[in-house]
Amino acid sequence: MSEHATETGGGVESGAPAAEHATPTSPPGLAGLLLGGGLVTGLLVGMTEVVWSYLLPRISSQWQAVLPADLPGLGAFLLAALVTDGTLGLLLGLLLLGVARLLRIRRTARGPGWLLTPLLAGGMCYLYVGWIVLFVLLPVDRRTLTYQAIVFVGVTLLVTAAWLLSRTILANPRRGRWIAAALAAGLGLLVAVGFAAYRASLPTETPLAPTPGGPRPNVLLITLDTLRADYVGCYGHPWIETPTLDRLAGEGVRFSQTVAQAPSTTPSHCSLMTSVYPFVHEAHNGKPMRPELVTLADVLAANGYETVAFTSATTTRSINSGLNRGFERYVDSLVPWSELFSRDEFQHLIFFYALGIVQHSQIPGGVVTDRALRWFGQRSERPFFAWLHYFDPHDPYGSPPPFRGKYTGRCDDGLPLAAQRERYAEDISYVDNEVGRVIAALEAAGELDNTLVLVTSDHGEAFGERHGAIVEKKHGRWLYDTTQLVPWIVRMPAGDGAGRSIATQAELVDVPPTVLGLLEIPSPDSFIGTDFAPQVSGRAADTPSRAAYAFNVIDIQTGDSERDVSFVQQIAVREPDWKFITIPRTQANSLFDLRTDPGETRSVIGANLAALEKWKRLALEHYDPTRDVNLDPRQRVAPSLVRQLQSLGYLGGDDE
């Protein structure tokens, strides 16, 4: 540029016509430097994001994620990452441009405008590489000085490298375009390599053979998160209004004792869909189940069903859970007004998360219902299997009007957490109303009497109940009946078997074989649950109950420091009259006589030592000590997901 010309921001002051000095290789103005640099950096980071998403499962056995395994899915994932990260780069460049204008920084060949370039590239590197990649990959405790030092050194090196690279690219825009293109090509090759490696790591699917027969009814499975059985009208609650659930129970069959397999959302739902225990499917909140397992949706899809799911929380998102297995359509976006960018927590509207504008960990039940009803108006002529998941009874509580404040002052029983119980009750009535909207739509379309409807929950909730020295709050840690007994209602097509109750103890793993039994479809060999179809349809009487199991991984103190913890498997074995809870590694055992102590307030293990070996034998039938854990199995969880899980009360603490 001529010595008579000085570039200020986007304008040019010159003693000669600007055209004389404008050439295709002229250095960009400050706005072009920062906005263009931000866009290019964001696009390259977007490609890098897709690369590490596919390669991380190969690098770290602890990091597991459900990613697109076909070319259209890969294309959508890549496009979403490019759009998201490119937008974030532009926003960061715009922010720095504003700072430059405020400080009156000019863009010159060697002026202070160059200082903004490493800030731009370094900011992107810190946000995506220092904060996320190192966060995921490092196996050490994140609270330690070692971890912080590694992150600091890593980010320093990355910012230095980004500064040197940006100087090389922007010093010569023409050469910079070639360097950027070469980087994009290299990243594209890595995307292809990572995608191929991810596909090769997936188990080979064995096609399920359809079972002759039909026509078969639709299947509607509704799970109401965190709903304990005794807070439902048809299960005996005196004042919580649940007219829809009461109606379905009155027109159908109600199981009086159903045990959930875990006290948290992801593992319990995975057992519900696969009919195997959590120790087998290995899912935790933030970690998906093993991909080779057969699900109820797999079987129904093989038998000609249109399979769809509408879920409502971080813990049921496909990448975090694997629950999308077998569903043709799986809607898990946590942004009520959009279903974009729902594949991956790394780029799920990450620029909104970074700016603190959107911090969704759940969506309200009304959104789930609206999405389901829109699909229902456009569905195919095939019979459908639809799963609707409502998260509303989960903490944090809060229903919209007219349910907000509906039960204020009703919990005047002197028991703990009265206000929380009232808000919880309001959420239950709200979600019952949403289920009512779905049932009304089926009825109006003439489909209700051609639909098998099942309603259940993944776990319950605790409100300060005492179990010896333990005061139980919320859920996610303990295996008492407060969190493990859930409702299970089955309404047969045309309301067959109306008003009956099944006293035999059941489990969530019994749901898939019971559904298939009612449809006269054989269950896969992997399903361990009991087929209750004969009892539901009235062809057989109640049978003697078998033992039911619940599982959870918890942290226990192993030293004086809060950081001195170990993670161990906890197992509960429940018979109708007895409940045994054990931690095999520490030999901590409790036994409760449910006939005289249904609240599990005192252990009677000391008076029943003769039966201890029997209970331990039952518990160890589903426990392999070689596969027990020492570190938190949820340790390597992406930061954006950590914030969401913590907002729901997960990831540590006695009050989960």
Tag the structure with descriptive keywords.
disordered N terminus, 656 residues, four-stranded antiparallel β-sheet, alpha/beta, single chain, disordered C terminus
Low-confidence runs (pLDDT<50, min 5 residues)?
1-27, 134-140, 341-349, 351-358, 652-656
Class based on secondary structure composition and strand pairing:
alpha/beta
How would the global form be characterised?
A: globular
Largest sheet: 9 strands, mixed
Number of strands: 17
The average pLDDT value, as a whole number, equals 81
Query: What's the end-to-end separation, in Å?
Result: 64 Å
Q: How is this structure best described in words?
A:
The protein is an alpha/beta fold and 656 residues long. It contains 19 helices and 17 strands. The strands form four sheets. Strands 3, 4, 5, 6, 7, 8, 11, 12 and 13 form a nine-stranded mixed beta sheet that branches. A hairpin with a 2-residue loop joins strand 9 and strand 10. It starts with 5 loop residues before the first strand and ends in a 9-residue tail after the last helix. The N terminus and C terminus are likely disordered.
Provide a concise account of the structure shown.
Helices cover 40% and strands 15% of the residues. The protein has 656 residues and is an alpha/beta fold.
